UniProtKB/TrEMBL annotation:
It comes from Marinomonas pontica. This is L-threonine aldolase. InterPro entries: ArAA_b-elim_lyase/Thr_aldolase, Low_specificity_L-TA_bact, PyrdxlP-dep_Trfase, PyrdxlP-dep_Trfase_major, PyrdxlP-dep_Trfase_small. Belongs to the threonine aldolase family. Keywords: Lyase, Pyridoxal phosphate. Residues 5-301 form the Aromatic amino acid beta-eliminating lyase/threonine aldolase domain.
Length: 356
């Protein structure tokens, strides 16, 4: 493949991450997260989020999502998320499995952002009706599954509904850094200051090998009447039960430390977002191409004539789509997308369009 726009997880990992793992692999360290590096991750994330946090590292984004949510919902609860969310479409039945069968309810809304009005209706439905599931958690994805980004006001509109209903809010931040840079705000502003209580802080798609942090904002949960201590304790048991308590946790911690050191996370996401901006600007100048949802971060859905898709694939460009919904493709840039690759893609699309 000449250039892959398939996903941001087709890229490997940053050199400094592997270097940090090599260093962490020397000598002995206590297992299961009882090492100095793991304590350092919690300190670094507390600093990044400007508050007291509990941290649970796991090795997939799916585990971060479903474990976070499972600690906040009873099996008779319902979890409200967008109908296009990763939770509902891309995590098999892990959500049901980890929550012991809670109901995941898809909410509508443009650009894969939940519509607060629809949410409002659902959080008030059949409360304390023993025959119905009980709204327990609200989960939003930032970046969303179509590449849009909730503004701070849009996050607030969701979390205000949650607050009135007394529900905790989870953020699926598989592309947390990309969203943050798109908004140009601080991690605190995009999360607990905007009413989010727990985050799946993704790092794998943005330059590490396999390390994702569940970040629990203690104070935010307490303010909603939850015992953060109880939730954290439960998360500990659930992570072990779910097979994500790595004995060599120090290697996951080393990745996260490296990710948070010298602004690696920022540098990587800045590059990915810049490459998408270049790609999107270029595509706008290609006849026959339609932008479906304007990309704000590093993912774009657009519609191309089918023969153009065939041409680009034959030229060695990788991406998903083309056949699931006629002409719709998904393009994703990463921390490692080469600028020349973006330029070559645009040039190739333009050459094809000119021949028609
Ligand atoms: C990639 C992704 C995840 C995590 O997926 P894993 O493959 O389990 O690491 C979660 N949410 C969203 C929106 C994603 O794009």
């Amino acid at each position: 493949m000449r250039v892959a726009f398939t996903s941001d997880n087709v890229a490997g990992a940053s050199d400094s991450v592997f270097k940090a793992m090599m260093e962490a692999a020397q000598g002995d360290a206590m297992p299961y997260g009882n090492d100095d590096g793991s304590a350092q991750v919690t300190r670094m994330l507390s600093e990044l989020f400007e508050c007291d946090v509990d941290v649970f590292l796991v090795s997939t984004g799916t585990a971060a999502n479903v474990l976070s949510i499972s600690a906040l919902t009873p099996p008779w609860g319902s979890v409200l998320c967008h109908q296009e969310s990763h939770l509902l479409n891309d995590e098999s039945t892990a959500p049901e499995f980890y929550t012991s069968g809670a109901r995941f309810v898809g909410i509508g809304g443009a650009d894969a952002k939940m519509d607060p009005a629809q949410l409002q209706k659902l959080v008030n439905q059949k409360i304390e009706d023993v025959h119905s599931c009980q709204p327990s958690v609200i989960s939003l994805s930032q970046v969303t599954e179509v590449g849009s980004v909730y503004s701070l006001d849009e996050i607030r509109a969701i979390t205000d509904v949650a607050k009135t209903a007394g529900l905790p809010v989870h953020m699926d931040g598989a592309r947390f850094a990309n969203a943050l840079l798109a908004l140009g705000c601080t991690p605190a502003e995009m999360t607990w200051k905007a009413g989010v209580d727990i985050v799946s802080f993704g790092a794998t798609k943005n330059g590490v090998m396999a390390s994702e942090a569940i970040v629990l904002f203690k104070r935010s949960l307490e303010d909603k009447g939850f015992s953060s201590e109880k939730v954290a304790k439960e998360l500990g048991y659930r992570r072990k039960r779910g097979g994500h308590l790595h004995s060599k946790m120090r290697l996951l911690s080393a990745q996260m430390i490296s990710y948070l050191t010298d602004d690696l996370w920022r540098i990587n996401a800045t590059h990915a977002n810049a490459m998408m901006a270049l790609l999107q600007d270029g595509l706008k100048t290609v006849p026959g191409v339609k932008i479906n949802t304007p990309a704000q971060a590093n993912m774009l859905f657009c519609t191309l004539p089918l023969p153009m898709i065939d041409h680009l694939q034959a030229e060695g460009f990788g991406f998903y789509g083309g056949r699931w919904e006629e002409g719709v493709i998904r393009l994703v840039t990463s921390f490692r997308t080469p600028k020349e690759g973006v330029e070559a893609f645009i040039a190739s699309a333009k050459t094809f369009a000119a021949q028609q």
